[in-house]
Amino acid sequence: MKTLLDTVGQTPLIRLQNLVEDQDSELLLKMERTNPGGSIKDRPALYIIEEAERRGWLKPGGTIIESSSGNFGITLAMIGAAKGYRVIVLVDPKTTPVNLAMMKAFGADVRVVTEKDDSGSYHKTRIALANRLHREIPGSFRPDQCFNPLNSEAHYRQTAQELMEQCQGKLDAVILTVSTGGQLGGFSRYFKEHAPHIRVIAVDAVGSTIFGGKAHSYLLPGMGLSWTPPNIDDLSRIDEIYKVPDEDAFLMCRLLARYEGVLGGGSTGAGLVVAWKLVQEWGSGKRIACLAPDNGERYLPTIYNDVWMKERGLNVEIEPMGLRRRVRELVPHSRYPVETANYQPELVEILDCPTRFHEVRR
């Protein structure tokens, strides 16, 4: 008999039917919402926790401390409840009420960080506080998803291989949204080693500077940073980078729900904006896969709420043909990703990150 955590992984791969036309490429969506914690973050979180247990970094009765915008924190809270660990999660004002409620339901100690960092976001202040608490609390462990290479290793060893097997090797491109870089780092490494013909396409939020550009605030949850995370350790493995505006991503979420019956989060919408462009450009005979990182139910008070959208000056209605035409106008942020590097290695010292993670890649 399986336990709850044994059900992580082996998520279904579905084919979209109503938002693609006969002359389009085949468009596949990997449904990570079926993980027990409701998102793709179950995979690296469990992998990191089990490695920490194996290496003696986390022991019975210990405390897990993490900075998270939502999904990773929810998963850690779930794992903590299942394994008997105390969990402290540092979030920020962009974290949705539903995500906050879910973490608290699992028994996590949730703390909202309201001080912005030098980029106008909250990532650095959240991470710095998490690291300080780690130093102060005996027996604590920091998964440190932004700087821990075990994050990308989980996707290299598990998720990417799983997708390849589900497609039986018949795949032309994979589209990945990016925040801490685990998915992009792991997938790009796996495919360039095992199937270099498959194009790896990264999707970031407009306003994020993971791949350079001008920094400004954005609404997309669970995406973006103000630096290139070290989990993306080789930008030459990425073929193209796109940046997607909030409104386009949110409208795509709404169309996906109404025309395919799939309720996805903002990052799912952002990835599908790029996928929808490519299926039109590449035409029939090609196969494109996009990851759907989490469940849209978490964003009912925001992305799927007309009042919330209108208050932020965003459109709430668009017909499929209108968005089809709109996404065709999207241009790549870069076709030479190496030139977009925004690594900031000094952050490891500035934020006082756990040093052991720099030696864990095998």
Q: Which terms summarize this structure?
A:
362 residues, 10 strands, 6-stranded mixed β-sheet, alpha/beta, 36% helix
In brief:
This protein is α/β, with parallel strands linked by helices and 362 residues long. The chain has helices at residues 42-55, 71-83, 97-105, 123-136, 150-166, 182-194, 246-260, 266-282, 306-311, 320-328, 347-350; strands at residues 13-15, 26-31, 63-67, 86-91, 109-112, 140-141, 173-177, 199-205, 240-244, 287-292.
Report on this model:
The structure is a single chain. It is globular, with a radius of gyration of 19 Å. α2 links the parallel β3 (63-67) and β4. The chain has helices at 42-55, 71-83, 97-105, 123-136, 150-166, 182-194, 246-260, 266-282, 306-311, 320-328, 347-350; strands at 13-15, 26-31, 63-67, 86-91, 109-112, 140-141, 173-177, 199-205, 240-244, 287-292. The strands form two sheets. Strands 1-2-10-7-8-9 form a six-stranded mixed β-sheet. A four-stranded parallel β-sheet has the order 5-4-3-6, sandwiched between helices. α1 crosses α5. It is built from eleven helices and ten strands. The mean pLDDT is 93. It is an alpha/beta fold and 362 residues long.
